[in-house]
Amino acid sequence: MTAQTVWDNCLSFIQDNITPQAYKTWFEPIRAVKLTDNALSIQVPSKFFYEWLEEHYVKLLKVSLTKELGEHAKLVYVIRMENTYGNRQPFTEKIPSTNRSNKMKSQEVDAPFKNKNPELKNPFVIPGIRNLEIESQLNPNYNFDNFLEGDSNRLARSAGMAVANKPGGTSFNPLLIFGGVGLGKTHLAHAIGVQIKDRYPDKTVLYISAEKFTQQYIESVKKNNRNDFIHFYQVIDVLIVDDIQLLSGKAGTQDVFFHIFNHLHQNGKQVVLTSDKAPVDMQDIEQRLLSRFKWGLSAELQQPGFETRVSIIKNKLYQDGVEMPEDIVEFLANNIKTNIRELEGAIISLIAHSSFNKKEINLELAKKIVDNYVKHTKREVSIDYIQKVVSDYFQMDVDTLQSKTRKRHIVQARQLAMFFAKKLTKASLASIGSQIGKRDHATVLHACKTVDNLSTTDKQFKKYVEDLNKKLTM
Ligand SMILES: Nc1ncnc2c1ncn2[C@@H]1O[C@H](COP(=O)(O)OP(=O)(O)OP(=O)(O)O)[C@@H](O)[C@H]1O
C-alpha cells in the first residue's frame, strides 16, 4: 500500500459522493505525499484550501480514509506555500486534520454519510495542535521595552499598547502610525506584533512591508492564484503592513488590499498600518481605501525632543554595554535631531571608530562623525535663515544686510547671502533678489560671480565662505 493507492481509493469514493465541480475544485489539486503507519499526508495548495476542506469535507475525508486505513486513520495536511507569502523561502507546513465537524456545514457531503458512526467523531484530532503556524516575520528586538516613550510618540505608543493588549477589540482599527523617516514606525509596528504574540500565542500575526505585499500580489497574478493570495491574508488575525504609502499608484494592489482589509475588519481582526505621511497627504491612493485608513486612529510619531533623544542614546549605549561621557551624549542629541536611525548610526560609528583606532571617545571625534552624518542629511535651508546666519556672522542685523548702502563690508555680506541662497536653495535668481533687499536677478548673478572670484583671490574672503558654509550646512 502506498500513499498514492490509498489516496486513489479515497478519491474514487469521494468522487461518487460529491458534485463533479466540487471534486474538480477541491480534490484534483491534492497530492498524496506520504503514508506512515496509519497517517496519510496530503499536500494542499494553500492554507485556505486546507481550511475549506476541514470546513466542508472533513467527514467525507474521514469516512473514506477510515475505510482504507482503519479506525485509527490520521490525515495530515502539507501546505505548500508556493508564493511564500510573508516567508523568505518556500516552505511546507504540516498540520494534522482538526476536528471541525461541529462547525461543518454538511450540504456538500453526501447524505448517507451524515451522522454515520457518530461515536467516531474525530479520528483525526491530535490534541493540542489546532492552529496553523504562520511565520510572523516579527523582529523580537523591536519591542515595547526598548521603544522609549516621549512626548513625540506618546499617543502612538499608547494606542499601540492598547491594540496589542486587545487586538481587534479597540476602536483603533485600523491603527495607522505615521511620521517622518527614521522615527520609529517600523519599530512600533513590530512591538505591537511581538506583544500580541506574547499575550496571545494562538493568534496568527503577520508583519509585511507594502513593497513585499505588492510583489507577492504581482506574482500571484502571474501564477494565476490571486484568490489563494487573498485567502491567505484573510485568515490572519493581526495584519501589520509597513509603509502603506508605497501602494500609491498601484491600483491592482490597492484593490486586493481593499478586499482583504474589509474582510479582516468585518471579522474583528486587527489591522496595523504605517506610513511616512498622514492619510490626507497620501497621493494616488483610492478614496475608498483612504477613507478606511481613517476609520480607526491615525497617530503621528513626531521628532523626539532633546530629552527623549538623550534617553534613546543612553538606552542604546546601555544595551551595547558602552559608556560615554555626558557631554558627548548631549552633543549628539543636540546635533542629530530629525532622525533616530541616524542618531543610532552616529553612536555606532563613534563606538566603531574609537575601538578600531584605539582612541578614546571624545568630543573631537564625535564632531567629526556628526559632520559625516549631518552632511548626508541635507537640510533644506531657507533664505531667511541664510540672511540671519550671515548677518550674525558679520555682527550686523538683517535690515542692515538688506539696506541700500554701498559700504563695502555690507555689500560683501549681502553678496555672500545671495551666493549661499543660490547654492543651498532651489529659489530662482529673481526670487533670491526680491527676498534679499529687493534686488533684481542680474544683481544676484553678479553677486555669485563676485563671491566665486573673491574666494579664489582673497584669503580672508575665502575664510568667510568656508566658515559660513560650515554654519549653514551643519
Ligand atoms: N522611541 C524609540 N525608542 C528607541 N528606539 C527608537 C525609538 N524610535 C525609533 N527608534 C529606533 O530608531 C531606528 C529607526 O526606527 P524605524 O526603523 O522604526 O523608523 P521608521 O520610521 O520605520 O523609518 P522609515 O521611514 O525609514 O521606514 C530603529 O533602530 C529604532 O529602534
UniProtKB/TrEMBL annotation:
It is found in: Cytoplasm. Coiled coil: none annotated. One of its GO terms (molecular function) is ATP binding. Residues 1-98 are annotated as: Domain I, interacts with DnaA modulators. One of its GO terms (biological process) is DNA replication initiation. The keyword GTP-binding does not apply. Residues 355-474 are annotated as: Domain IV, binds dsDNA. ATP binds at G182, G184, K185, T186. Keywords: ATP-binding, Cytoplasm, DNA replication, DNA-binding, Lipid-binding, Nucleotide-binding. One of its GO terms (cellular component) is plasma membrane. The keyword Cytoplasm applies. Residues 382-451 form the Chromosomal replication initiator DnaA C-terminal domain. Residues 171-301 form the AAA+ ATPase domain. Plays an essential role in the initiation and regulation of chromosomal replication. ATP-DnaA binds to the origin of replication (oriC) to initiate formation of the DNA replication initiation complex once per cell cycle. Binds the DnaA box (a 9 base pair repeat at the origin) and separates the double-stranded (ds)DNA. Forms a right-handed helical filament on oriC DNA; dsDNA binds to the exterior of the filament while single-stranded (ss)DNA is stabiized in the filament's interior. Domain I is involved in oligomerization and binding regulators, domain II is flexibile and of varying length in different bacteria, domain III forms the AAA+ region, while domain IV binds dsDNA. Oligomerizes as a right-handed, spiral filament on DNA at oriC. Belongs to the DnaA family. HAMAP family: DnaA_bact. This is Chromosomal replication initiator protein DnaA. It comes from Leeuwenhoekiella marinoflava. The gene is dnaA.
